[in-house]
Amino acid sequence: MSLIALTRAVSPAIARCELTHLSRAPIDFERARAQHEGYELALRALGCTVQQLPTGPEMPDAVFIEDAAVVVDGLAIITRPGAQSRRSECEGVARALEAYRPLAYIEEPGTLDGGDVLVVGQSIFIGLSSRTNLAAVEQMQRLVAPLGYMVQAVRVTGCLHLKSAVSAAADDVVLMNRDWAPVDAFTGCDIIYVHPDEPHGANVVLIGQSLVYPTAFPRTRERLESRGLGVTGVDVSELAKAEGAVTCCSLIFTAGQPAAPTLNP
Ligand code: CIR
Fold it and tell me: Exposed end of the chain (fewer CB within 10 Å): N or C?
């Protein structure tokens, strides 16, 4: 089944990005662009067809495309990002996704960033953060329940998004910083903890059985590799200054929908 990775070019205005937990540091645009290209190369090497959307100076954070939508089997949900400055990103992402999925929308008073949505099998964990509220969790629940997904809200503290604290590293395995999200929400999963010196290391992209992971976290990478997980390292240090990690730079999904089950074989 072919995998699409939707990405979005780095905005020339990335220096004006939103920041919540980080102090502003100068971002080298050309370097950020080159790192983003390296990230896209890694996705291609792991079998994704990369489709890059254009950006503009009016959307400084557009490269973090994950926040504009959530794609599951059978549906793409266009979000209503918690930061007002990011809402204009959604239209272009919706136009790209309608080729692959029926669309649904998070509506006012709901706010939701895709970075707060972690899908593990049929479970969807949604972070209650400074960007995502309970109204959006309830809307998500109504949208995905008919597709067989279970939604669980998880309180996030000390970081921007749920996926800054915990992300999927394999089927039923998560990589986690236990200071930023409650461990007991993930009792059904096998948990790998980030190295204590690398609190920002809990965000990893999972493609099939392979991982794309920042080179900035070598000690946590060792923990992943010692569990037999294959890791491709990417340098995303400039994007990290904009409070981005690796999952946020793509929306990865199957192009074709799984065939309907055969009822009478
Ligand atoms: C923001 O604050 O919205 C951006 N500067 C960073 C968003 C990163 N998104 C993500 O991790 N899903």
Answer: C
CATH number of the domain enclosing 131: 3.75.10.10
- Verify whether residue 17 is a known catalytic residue: no
Strand 190-193 and strand 173-176: pairing?
Answer: parallel
Residue 86: CA count within 13 A, CB half-sphere? 25
Residue 60 Cβ inside 6 Å of ligand 1? The answer reads no
Q: In this predicted structure, what is the pLDDT of residue 256?
A: 72
Q: Which residues contact 84 (CB under 8 A, 6 or more apart)?
A: none
State yes or no: is 36 an active-site residue.
no
Percent of the chain with pLDDT over 90: 95
pLDDT score for 257: 58
Amino acid occupying residue 220: T
- The predicted structure's pLDDT at residue 133: 98
Asked whether residue 53 is assigned to any structural domain, the reply reads yes
What is the whole-number distance in angstroms between the Cα of residue 252 and the centre of ligand 1? 17
Using only C-alpha atoms, the chain has a radius of gyration, in whole angstroms, of 17
Q: Whose CA is nearest to atom 8 of ligand 1?
A: 244
Give the closest residue (by CA) to ligand 1 atom 12: 115
pTM summary value = 0.95
The secondary structure element, H or E, covering residue 119 is strand 117-120
Q: How many domains does the chain have?
A: 1
CA distance 98 to 205: 23
In a domain, 22, yes or no: no
User: Which tokens belong to 264?
Assistant: 């009478």
Q: 185-244, pLDDT tens digit by residue?
A: 999 899 999 999 999 999 999 999 999 999 999 999 999 999 999 999 999 999 999 999
